[in-house]
Amino acid sequence: MKLFIQSSTIRLMMLLTAFVSQSVTAQQGPPANVNVAPIQNTLLSPVAWVSGSVVSRNNSQIGANVSGRLIALADLGAKVNKGDIIAQLDDKPLLLQQQEEQANVDHALAKLTFEQSEVSRKKVLVDKNLISATELEQTMADFHVAKANVAAAKAKLSQIKQDLLYTKLKAPFDGIVAERLSNQGEFINNGKAIIRLVETANVEASIFAPLTAYRYLKTTKQLAIKSPLGEGIAPIKNLIPVADSQSHLMEVRLDMSAFDWPIGLNLQAAVATGESKQVLAVPRDALVLRRNAISIFIIDNENKAQQVDVSVGIGEGELIEIIADVKENDKVVIRGAERLKVGQSVNIKSNNQALISGNQ
């Protein structure tokens, strides 16, 4: 009878244990599909994402050097090479002036030839005492005046020829016509801007960083950048450690020759704001954010999820420093942690597609 009671008690305890185990399993739910990544022991630098934009090294308003009526103008958006004609003024008035100045040069040369012969003739007469030396000096003065008149007439002619060249505006660099600042048929005054030409060969990024980042930027050769068109790494081209008293920002120029991004595109660049340090880091997706705490889920040796409260530190890119009772290479859940329960079993999937489909 005693043995029967003991046997019944053992069976009852086994049933209770099984019931409790089933209850716990029911509460935890079936194994959850997750993606994991190892906790890294890596060097991170605190960074700030600063704003900027893609700019051209040359963005010029090309103006006229002479006055005249605009008779031809490059189309908006036209791609031109250095030396191509992008605008033309009516040159007929200048051609008439050129003829006039050429006539003045011919007249001055004729006068100079006459005065030169007079000097030669009167030297002979002075030697023969037929005229006074004063008369010879006057003739020589007339000769020098004629010579100066020739030089002045030639200078005016050269100026007209130069102005004729200015009636054809040529592109000073390869680029694209970004704006037509004048219209065909208008009378253009000397110095007025006609066309805006933007160089597309030498593209840079202009970003503005705090002056406090100067000591880190001067030892950096390249910066991570991102925009709506993508992301990448751009070399630092110029560092300009000068800022105004209001913004306290300095300009940094990046070489964008490796990017096919249009001029004017807004972008951001990661600028270091502090010293690098060795830390334990996880992908940002591993953080489980609650109202009063931040935690991560670690997968233990029994393939179960264990929740660990963490404090976060510096971040760089997709990695962020964590301060917690964890170690390098611990498996941390980076996808699928939203519904995980403490102690729940997991199925580790190799990638996000496998996580969604449920297939390994």
Binned, the helix content reads: 25-40%
Please work out how many helical segments DSSP would assign.
5
What's the count of strands?
A: 24
Q: Assign the CATH class of the largest domain.
A: Mainly Beta
Give the SSE layout.
Layout: H1 2-28, E1 32-38, E2 40-44, E3 47-56, E4 59-63, E5 68-73, E6 79-80, E7 85-89, H2 92-127, H3 133-166, E8 168-170, E9 175-180, E10 187-188, E11 193-198, E12 203-210, H4 214-217, E13 222-227, E14 230-240, E15 249-255, E16 266-272, E17 277-283, E18 288-289, E19 294-299, E20 305-309, E21 311-316, E22 319-323, E23 331-335, E24 346-348, H5 352-357
Parallel strand pairs: 1-24
Antiparallel strand pairs: 1-23, 2-17, 3-12, 3-16, 4-11, 5-7, 5-10, 6-9, 7-8, 9-11, 12-15, 13-14, 13-16, 14-15, 17-22, 18-19, 19-20, 19-23, 21-22
Helix pairs in contact: 2-3
Describe this entry's structure for a reader.
A hairpin with an 8-residue loop joins β14 (230-240) and β15. This protein folds into four domains: 27-44 and 277-357, conserved putative lor/sdh protein from methanococcus maripaludis s2 fold; 47-57 and 202-272, Elongation Factor Tu (Ef-tu), domain 3; 59-90 and 175-198, RNA polymerase II/Efflux pump adaptor protein, barrel-sandwich hybrid domain (OB fold (Dihydrolipoamide Acetyltransferase, E2P)), CATH 2.40.50.100; 92-166, Helix Hairpins (Orthogonal Bundle), CATH 1.10.287. The chain has five helices and 24 strands. The chain is of the alpha+beta class and 360 residues long. The strands form five sheets. Strands 1, 18, 19, 20, 23 and 24 form a six-stranded mixed sheet that branches. Mean pLDDT is 86; it is low at 1-5 and 18-26. It starts with a helix and ends with a helix.
